Amino acid sequence: MRNHSAITMFIIMGLTNDPQLEILVFIFLFITYMISVIGNLTIISLILVDSHLKTAMYLFLQNFSFLEISFTTACVPTYLYMISSGDKTITIKACFSQIFFIVLFGATEFFLLAVMSYDRYVAICKPLHYVTIMNNRVCWNLILSCWVSGLLIIFPPLGLSLHLEFCDSDIDHFFCDASLILKNSCSDTWFIEQLVIVCAVLTFIMTLVCIVLSYIYIIRTILRLPSAQQKKKAFSTCSSHMIVVSVTYGSCIFMYIKPSAKDEVAINKAVSLLTTSVAPLLNPFIYTLRNTQVRRSFHDILKIMLPHNKHVDLNKIVILVQLTLTLVFVAPVATGETEERSSPFQVGRWQF
Questions:
Q1: Cα(310)–Cα(11) distance, rounded to whole angstroms?
Q2: Could you read off the pLDDT of 131-143 as tens digits, one per residue?
Q3: Distance between CA 114 and CA 109 in Å, rounded?
Q4: Which of 8, 88, 102, 120 counts the highest number of beta carbons within 10 A?
């Protein structure tokens, strides 16, 4: 039995103890964080200013981008500050606050992905009634329901955890991981652990069932379309969402496939690093690189910003930006997937 003492601060051990490697980690996290925020803010801004993007699909995408910014901001900046200042301590209250926001944003994303799959179902299976069914009021009610569901998931286990006593201050991670917090507790955490499992499984199963059912109907409808061109267009409408769903749920499943105790901490930290930095960075490009409407909107914004410069070819600028982003971020992921299947597709983003 561990000795009990009054612990008021946790020590975040981080990703490495090597000062030189820590500098590289800082640079990597800072660059990916900034690009992730800029990319998602660009999507949010384009949807706000372009009247052609005022549909349910883009409203959900806008909120998804906001969640991505919020999720990565809940994890990365704190660790960047710790590296730059050398102060790896964090108060218990701040630690629980970080856990609250990480789980809230992560759980809300699961529910929002389910709502987005329903939106695709209505668009493909009931196109004539799409505008009526997915009106502005319904969309905002669905978004609000996602946030409320996320709050309901986090409050019970977190509320019980606030009364725990701790006898170990070290957290072998780069942010406050709930499972490690429970291991540091001197109190009986059995009920909290079971409650966490129940909440996680319920959220996972409920949202996955909604997504699977939606795509069963979507695929059935697409296969009934008369022409190959119509089928291709319908599949392309859902392809971005299917990729993000595969990444999110695949990573969640990966997190529950526990490695040996010796490798568990290292793998968990590596996977979490990709979760909090790479996945939020890639999602804007997954959704927009092949989206004609978003590209057209970006083209129009550039035209407004550069109205008098006749020597600037806006089409070339758009193509150059897209090719650069693809080569820098998408191509390395594609090559890495063939070499090692534990790339961004095995990123677990729901840390309970």
A1: 57
A2: 999 999 999 999 9
A3: 9
A4: 102
pLDDT at 308: 53
- Distance (Å, whole) CA 46 – CA 169: 45
For residues 170 and 344, the answer to whether their CB atoms sit within 8 Å is no
Mean pLDDT of 221-237: 86
CA distances 243 to 236, 239, 246, Å, are 11, 6, 5
- Please give the residue that has the higher pLDDT: either 113 or 46: 113
pLDDT score at 64: 95
Query: How confident is residue 239, by pLDDT bands cut at 50, 70 and 90?
Result: confident
Average pLDDT of the residues of the chain: 82
Residue 4 counted as domain residue? no
pLDDT tops 70 at residue 322: no
Could you give phi then psi for residue 166, rounded to 5 degrees?
Answer: -120, 145
Tally of domains within the chain: 1
- H or E element at residue 202: helix 190-223
C-alpha dihedral (161, 166, 172, 178), degrees to nearest 10: 0
Q: Distance between CA 275 and CA 204 in Å, rounded?
A: 17
Residue that is written with structure tokens 């196109």 in the block: 127
Name the least confident of 13-22, 30-39, 95-104, 110-119.
Answer: 13-22
Q: Supply the CATH number for residue 221's domain.
A: 1.20.1070.10
Query: Which residues face 91 on adjacent strands?
Result: 9
The token duo for 107 is 């759980």
- Domain enclosing residue 288, as ranges: 9-346
The residue behind tokens 């999507």 is 43
Rounded distance between C-alpha atoms, residue 282 and residue 36, angstroms = 8
Q: Are 139 and 60 in contact (CB under 8 A)?
A: yes
d(CA 27, CA 80): 9
Strands (E), 245-286: none
Q: Is residue 352 included in any domain, yes or no?
A: no
Nearest alpha-carbon partner for 276 in 88, 92, 78: 78
